[in-house]
Structures are given as C-alpha cells and as structure tokens.
Amino acid sequence: MPESQANSKNRDHKSCSPAPARLRNRPTLPLSDQERVALPQVEMTYPVKIPQYYLNLIDWTDPDDPIRLQTIPQLQELVWHDGELPDPIGDDAHSPVPRLTHRYPDRVLLFPTFKCAVYCRHCFRKESLGALGFEAGEMEQAFHYISEHPEVQEVILTGGDPLILPDANLLYLRQRVEQIRHVRMLRIHTRVPVVVPSRVTPQLIDALKASIMVSVVTHFNHPKEITEASAAACGALRAAGFMLLNQTVLLRGVNDNVQTLQTLCRELVYRLGVKPYYIHHCDLTRGVSHFRTRVEDGLALMRQLRGFISGVALPTYVLDLPGGKGKIPLGPGYVQQLSDGTWLCRTVRGESVTYREILGEAAMASVAR
Ligand SMILES: *Cc1c(COP(=O)(O)O)cnc(C)c1O
Ligand code: SF4
C-alpha cells in the first residue's frame, strides 16, 4: 500500500460496509415522510447509528430539533457538489503509516477505531467511518513510528470515537503512549460524553489516568446536549484531573445563531467546566452542504461573542484547509497596520481606535537595525 494511501482504503465505498442500521428496526420512531424516505437510501452510502440516550433527547414535535438534525439522515446527504472532497482535510496526505496522521511537527493523530457511538450527519470524516475497528498490529506500527520521532510531544486519539473501545484497549493505548518518553500529553477526541455519557465509568477513567497530562476534547454543538448525565460525565473526567476542552462544528440550522452559541459556550464553562476550544467551519466534505454556513456569517457570529461572553468561554473560529494544509483561524480580525508602529483597531462595539506603539530604547534599537 503506498504510504499516502494508508487510511484511504477505508474510504473506498465498496469496501465500506455500513454499520448496522439501528433505525430501520424502529418503525415506532415518529419520522417525517421525508426522513422515512431518506433513511434506507442514505444507509446505503453512510452508516447510521444513534444511542438510545441521545435519541431520547429529541423533541419529535420540532422538525428542526438540533439533535434530530445531527442524527436523522436527510436526502441532501446524497447531493454531492463539484469541489467537495472524500478526504476534506487531507488526513491521507500526511499519513506515513496506517492509522496515523502527522501534519504538525509536535503532535500526531492516531485512529484506534473508525467506528463511533453515533454517526453525526455532519461528520467531516463521514466517508472513513463504519468499517474498521481496533487492530493491535497497526497500532504497534503507529507507536513504533512515534517512538522514532522525538519531536512528537502529543498523541491525539481520534477516529472514529476512541471511547467506544473496551477499557482493556484504552488501557493498552494509554500505557503504550506513556512508554514513549518524549510524549507529554495524551489527548482524546470524543463524542461519548455527549451521546452516551453512561460510558464514562470509573473503570474507563482508571484506564485513561496517566502519568502525563491527559486532555479530553468533547464535541457539544448545542445547549440541549448539556444534561444531568453529560454534566456528571464531565464532572467525573474533571475530578480525574483531565483537561477538558470542547470543539463545536458551526452547523446551519443547528447552532448558527448568537443566542445558541452564547448559551452553549457559557453552559460549557459555567456548568461543565469545559473550555470552548475551537468552533470549526463546516469542511468541504461531500454530503454536508446543507449544514454549511457562509464564512461571512460565521465571522459575524464570532463578532457577537468576543466581548459579550467571558473570554474563558470564547472558542477560536477555525477552517481546516483542504489538501492537508492545516487549520487557520478565520478571525474576525480586529487590527490593520497603518504604518510602522501604527495600527487601526476595531473595538468589539465597532468603533475605530488608532493605536501607536511606544517602545523602550532597546526595542527601538532593534527596530532600527
Ligand atoms: C487538528 C489537527 C491536530 C490538532 O491540532 P490542534 O490545533 O493542536 O488542536 C493535529 N493533527 C492534525 C492532522 C489535525 O488535523
Ligand atoms: S463522533 Fe466524531 S468521528 Fe464519529 S461521526 Fe460524529 S463527528 Fe464523526
């Protein structure tokens, strides 16, 4: 297998057998006529799965319920536009060995499984998911690669959802990461605390507790997802000493309004003790165009967060560029250089302020050089 193809065989539709279609067996669900038509068709291309706890959060009287939109397939998933990509952020472009992506020098992504507890309709890796589970041999190859790369300080377990793995696998992964002397943090990207919070058991926490820093990065998209159960799961993870962060995907019709984002960010911090880390612009994945907002609208939303909610609650709005070029902050920007040492600044309320730099003698001397 060519190196750059390390993950992509997983993305080949014909080899990707969709996960069991949990919804097909539930004729009792009050799906709309459109949803009932879409379900079997979408299931032929993409896996569908919703844990019972998360399903129970749906208010079926609301056709635009945010959890319904994130989980129940719509026919628009089968509408693919020119320019959309099977691998929108270029995971494959930087994959030297299977199950590992090394794009930034000091951190790597590891893919211990490509299965999830829920299959999010907006997922940016939706074409990679469903087929491949845990495979010890490939993990060993990935760990060998990391041990040969002393510049790697952080190992990020992603997928798929690593926390659906049995505790024994998690224990193995954590211990294997700990054994590599130059790795200083284990980071876990997961939706489990949002969609099956009961999975966050004392045994799971024990498996993850490490002698190095552990960070759990959750994926809450809407305040409705914050419940007693998800709060308890986050509380337990925090009590274990893990650093809790959250990434949100900006989704049209789900969370692309100021009230929702303000409430989400505040509840994450004040109720869950989770720091909003990134808000992702929806990637150019095929089959998610109905979720995509305009960048301009995302920037306008961010302008209404900065200064209006606590800085602790403020995420960075990022775009992951196609082709593996990496993440960049989209802004909004607040400064423009007028001349050497003079900046035109914009306040959070939209006023313009000119800022002139005043430097000490040593700094002035270095500017002159
Ligand atoms: C997003 C990403 C990371 C993590 O980036 P951070 O900015 O540290 O959160 C690491 N590797 C790859 C390939 C990524 O796409
Ligand atoms: S849990 Fe994560 S990887 Fe799995 S479908 Fe949702 S967004 Fe994608």
Structure description:
α10 links the parallel β7 and β8 (316-321). The chain has helices at 33-43, 52-55, 66-71, 136-147, 167-179, 192-195, 202-208, 228-239, 258-272, 295-303, 361-368, and strands at 100-104, 107-110, 154-157, 185-189, 213-218, 243-249, 275-280, 316-321, 326-329, 335-339, 342-346, 352-356. The chain is globular. 27% of the residues lie in helices and 17% in strands. The chain has a nine-stranded mixed sheet. Strands 10-11-12 form a three-stranded antiparallel sheet, with no helix packed on it. Residues 1-21 have low confidence and may be disordered. 40% of the residues are buried. The protein binds pyridoxal-5'-phosphate (PLP) and iron/sulfur cluster (SF4). The site of pyridoxal-5'-phosphate (PLP) has 8 residues, from β1 and β2.
Keywords:
alpha/beta, 3-stranded antiparallel β-sheet, 11 helices, 12 strands, 27% helix, disordered N terminus, binds pyridoxal-5'-phosphate, binds iron/sulfur cluster
